[in-house]
Amino acid sequence: MKTIEPNEDLSEELPPSAYAAKSLFDFAIDREDVKWLLAKPPEEHKLSKDTMEYELQLLKIISTGWSISFYLADNPQKLKVAENFWELVHSFSDTITSTTELTIGKKVDYFNELKERLDVYLDSLKGLTMETDPLSIIGPEFAKFSGDKDNVFAMLTGSKMFAATLKRVKDFFETIDDLDQKDEINQGKDVE
């Protein structure tokens, strides 16, 4: 599965919070993980591969955004990184919405789809306790969105995407330990 690769040029060009948001956004929309998870589904899973692919991409974007708040809980740059990330996602969503409307003649509000999924996933995580594995909550929710709430393959696939995304984001944040230090110096720079 894909890691979030450091980009030296980008890290020197942008303040750390904008660099983090851009790197996370690029990772979130990358489809390599999605394709890998769906490469060899069991023959009997009977779910639409297109639907699962679509839902996996939504879950990856949502998981990346959620990870920002989770892993930067006490970091003063949490809001900047999150705002920059969701602004990039919103811009990307507008492009997808426009392209989809031109292609199929029907308007599909991609950002609204993301927001609706995020609300459902967050609502389901409200019951999370220290003893509860979040994967046991995310997997079944993903399976519902994929078309069969009882499909074990869908549950496992959604759980894998969620877990892998959280791990990649955590690993990435560990590589940029100066997130809150340099940003104060570069206040005037924004994400393009």
Question: What attributes does this structure have?
Answer:
single chain, 192 residues, mainly alpha, 9 helices, 69% helix, globular
H-E string? HHHHHHHHH
Note the gap between the termini.
28 Å
Helical fraction equals 55-70%
Structural Rg: 17 Å
Shape: globular
Stretches where pLDDT falls below 50 for ≥5 residues? 182-192
Broad structural category:
mainly alpha
Tell me about the largest β-sheet: none
> What share of residues are in beta strands?
under 5%
Q: What number is the mean pLDDT?
A: 86
Number of domains: 1
Count of DSSP H/I helices: 9
Number of E strands: 0
Describe the structure.
The radius of gyration is 17 Å and the shape is globular. Mean pLDDT is 86; it is low at 182-192. With 192 residues, the protein is mainly alpha-helical. 34% of the residues are buried. It contains nine helices and no strands. The chain has one domain.
